[in-house]
Amino acid sequence: MGRATCLVVAMSVALLFAATTGLACDEATDSQTSLTGMTEATADDGTPADGRAMIPLPAPQPDGPVSLEEAIRVRRSVREYSDEPLTLTELGRLLWAAQGVTSDRGARAAPSAGGTYPLEVYAATAMVTGLRPGVYRYHPREHALETVSGGDVRAGLMEAGLGQACIGDGAVDIIVAAVYERTTERYGDRGIRYVHLEAGHAAQNLCLQAVTLGLGAVTVGAFSDEQVRAAAGLPAGEQPLYIIPVGRPAGY
Ligand SMILES: Cc1cc2nc3c(=O)[nH]c(=O)nc-3n(C[C@H](O)[C@H](O)[C@H](O)COP(=O)(O)O)c2cc1C
Predict the structure, then answer these.
(1) Nearest atom, ligand 1, residue 76 CA
(2) Where in 67-202 does DSSP place strands (E)?
(3) Which residue owns the Cα nearest ligand 1 atom 20?
(4) What is the reported pLDDT for 51?
(5) For ligand 1, atom 29, which residue shows the shortest CA distance?
(6) By alpha-carbon position, which residue is closest to atom 22 of ligand 1?
(7) Cβ(182)–Cβ(237) under 8 Å?
(8) Inter-residue contact 243 to 174 (CB < 8 Å)
(9) Are 242 and 203 a contacting pair, CB within 8 Å?
(10) To test ligand 1's pocket by mutation, which of 204, 218, 243 has the most ligand atoms within 8 angstroms of CB?
(11) Per the CB 3.0–4.6 Å rule, which of 101, 128, 194, 210 could disulfide with 217?
(12) How does pLDDT run across 190-239, given as a tens digit for each residue?
């Protein structure tokens, strides 16, 4: 194939992707709605019509003294933390950076192939001021938490994570999980790659946000999927991809 033909083929593929992505933005807003059942089912006070209690998170604040360049430069994996709790505002800002809604059309902080939004983000909390230890599902559209279960599950997650102490020591363990079908329905097997890339985008956003908040975080990929699912109470269709312990760095 000549260079000119290659260029035409590449541009056609790019245009096709952009076209489906553009379509998907609208469709994703709808499909996201039907997937979570949240938008139509949510009452004005944030309580879904099906009775699930939602805990609103403080609104994200787009300010801060740390530049993006500084956050990128300073970020390191931090695995040792103090016992000082996080605030609910800090937890909200971490979750918003990972998957928060950042446009009126429902687009999120991290890019998503075709706007299919396969990720579900959970916070397994132990030391967050004003929040009982438990597992919470983040609802991006409402910027709110839904209680999945009560109690500190860090020990179970640590065991699932081959005994890595950072998982047991973080004030909160963020779990990034995925529903592959949301993306593979549109892109076939290649969607699996897209889901993994998206998890990386979300995790990096969260890690950089942790830096801006003076927090430490580490992206953990070594764990038993089944054990994480059991410890956190994830639904059968969700695959855990990352555990990200976050806390105040020890010695600060
Ligand atoms: C996909 C992935 C999986 C990882 N899994 C673990 C893990 O299971 N445990 C851990 O302590 N660090 C884990 N890390 C963090 C790396 O060890 C760390 O990023 C690397 O040593 C570079 O150091 P830095 O993050 O401080 O730049 C993982 C990183 C990536 C990208």
Answers:
(1) 26
(2) 119-125, 134-139, 144-150, 172-178
(3) 77
(4) 56
(5) 219
(6) 77
(7) no
(8) yes
(9) yes
(10) 218
(11) 210
(12) 999 999 999 999 999 999 999 999 999 999 999 999 999 999 999 999 99
Q: Which fold is adopted by the domain 3-247?
A: NADH Oxidase (3.40.109)
Give the DSSP H or E segment for 203. helix 190-212
Residue 139 vs residues 63, 97, 179: alpha-carbon distances, Å: 22, 13, 15
Helix H or strand E encompassing 240: strand 239-247
Q: Considering only CA atoms, which of 93, 71, 103 is closest in space to residue 172? A: 93
Task: State how far the Cα of 164 lies from the Cα of 185, in Å rounded to an integer.
Answer: 35
Q: How far is CA 73 from CA 84, 95, 202, 212, in A?
A: 25, 21, 18, 11
Q: Mean per-residue pLDDT for 76-98?
A: 98
